[in-house]
Every structure is written in C-alpha cells, then in structure tokens.
C-alpha cells in the first residue's frame, strides 16, 4: 500500500506548511534499535551508547534464532537498559516479551495485533505497531489499544527491506489529530532528522547510523539535534 492508496486518500501537502508542533507534547526523543547481531562485545557497545546521551527506549531486534537463544542474548542487554531506566522493547514476538518481562513489544503488521498483545502482556506494557505509510493502519492500531504507532521508512535504509516511503506530512497529520505518540523510522541520521522532528515525530527510531560507526559519537550528535 502506498500513501495514495490509503483508504483515507492522499494528504494535502499544505497541511505540512500549516503545521505547528503542539508544545504540550513532550520533546522528541531517541528510540534505539539493535543490530541483528548482538553477540560478542555488543553489550559493552550498548552501555557506551546509553551512557553517551538521552535514549528513551531500546528495541531488541534479532531474527532467525529460537526463543531460548534470543532470551539468553536479551537478558544482559535488558539489565543494561534497566540500570539506566531505558525502556526495553522486544521486536515482533509477544511470547518473548512475556518471557522476559519486557517493558514493551513492537509489532509488524504480520506479528499479531495490539489486542492480542495486551491480553498476553497486561495493561502496563508498551505496545507499538508498524503502520508504514498508512493513516488507516495507524488509526486501526490506536483503536486496538497501541501505545504508539510507527511510520516509515522516511529515508533509504540498509537495516531492512522497505516498500513504503511516507512523506513527513503524515507525522504532522497524526500529531495534530491524536495524542498517541508517533515514531519516525528509516534511514534517520543526525543530518536528516530535523525535518521529521519539525513535522511532529515524538520519537526517532535509529539503528544503522549508530551501530555502523562510533555509537557514542552518534548518540551525542542526535542529542544535539534533539535538545
């Protein structure tokens, strides 16, 4: 689905020009996503990143390993986050989030829905849903009880294969009409983040730009953009 295929129809580009961020919303924050390989010295890198500047949440994202192995890899990273009061979010798996007692779970469109996650994980766990470039999917996620919705990829990314490329105006539209936080994701760097913040993103989800180089320097650069 492209934005133009959204059942709600295309967004008026003038919407973005008229948008003013509501100062009652908290400032935009950083949402850090793990690389697929979190073995070896990754725990030390995570600690270094989280000590370099403000990070609101960390998403544990690994693929193609069994749940026992995933849990074993997650546990030291979860402790690092807990020690720094950073929310620990599990990607894709409601069952792994429950097993770990994670702070949240992030669901793709094929990973179950927010109602299922709420029933399994309880009232206090944060539930996020990927909504790509669709206002319709975002509204459905909100109605199902999601705690945040994620739009993207806004920029080219090598972290995952993406088929959807929304315009920043979708963030403006969402944050004007809904209190539920929205996350911008996809190829975000300190150099290209500002338009997404100005458009209304509540969180910037970042991965490759942090882990493909000096993680502490990247976090500090994002802190400068977001301060």
Helix-strand topology string:
HEHEHEHEHEHEHEHEHH
The main β sheet shows up as: 8 strands, parallel, barrel
Helix content: 25-40%
> How many distinct helices?
10
Shape: globular
Low-confidence stretches: none
Using only C-alpha atoms, the radius of gyration works out to 17 Å
Physical arrangement of strands within the biggest beta sheet:
1-2-3-4-5-6-7-8
Short summary:
Helix content is 39%, strand content 16%. The chain is of the alpha/beta class and 227 residues long.
Ordered list of secondary-structure elements with their pairings:
Elements: H1 14-18, E1 29-33, H2 42-52, E2 57-60, H3 67-83, E3 87-91, H4 94-100, E4 104-107, H5 114-121, E5 126-130, H6 135-143, E6 148-152, H7 169-177, E7 182-185, H8 194-199, E8 203-206, H9 208-211, H10 215-226
Parallel strand pairs: 1-2, 1-8, 2-3, 3-4, 4-5, 5-6, 6-7, 7-8
Description:
The chain is globular. The protein is of the alpha/beta class and 227 residues long. Helix content is 39%, strand content 16%. The mean pLDDT is 93. The relative contact order is 0.17. Helix 2 packs parallel to helix 3, helix 2 (42-52) runs parallel beside helix 10 and helix 4 runs parallel beside helix 5. An 8-stranded parallel barrel has the order 1-2-3-4-5-6-7-8, surrounded by 6 helices.
Features:
227 residues; alpha/beta; eight-stranded parallel barrel; 8 strands; 39% helix; globular
């Amino acid at each position: 689905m492209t934005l133009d295929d959204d059942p709600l129809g295309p967004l008026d580009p003038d919407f973005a020009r008229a948008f003013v961020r509501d100062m009652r919303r908290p400032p935009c924050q950083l949402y850090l996503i793990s690389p697929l390989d979190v073995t070896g010295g990754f725990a030390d890198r995570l600690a270094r990143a989280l000590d370099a500047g403000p990070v609101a949440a960390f998403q544990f994202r690994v693929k193609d390993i069994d749940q026992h192995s995933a849990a074993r890899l997650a546990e030291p990273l979860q402790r690092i986050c807990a020690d720094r009061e950073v929310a620990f979010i599990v990607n894709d798996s409601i069952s792994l989030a429950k097993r770990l007692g994670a702070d949240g779970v992030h669901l793709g469109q094929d990973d179950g829905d927010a109602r299922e996650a709420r029933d399994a994980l309880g009232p206090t766990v944060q539930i996020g849903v990927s909504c790509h470039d669709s206002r319709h999917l975002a509204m459905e996620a909100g109605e199902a009880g999601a705690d945040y919705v994620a739009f993207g990829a806004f920029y080219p990314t090598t972290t995952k294969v993406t088929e959807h490329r929304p315009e920043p105006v979708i963030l403006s539209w969402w944050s004007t009409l809904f209190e539920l936080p929205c996350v911008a994701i996809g190829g975000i760097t300190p150099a290209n983040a500002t338009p997404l913040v100005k458009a209304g993103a509540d969180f910037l989800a970042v991965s490759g730009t942090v882990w493909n180089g000096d993680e502490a320097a990247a976090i500090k650069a994002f802190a400068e953009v977001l301060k």
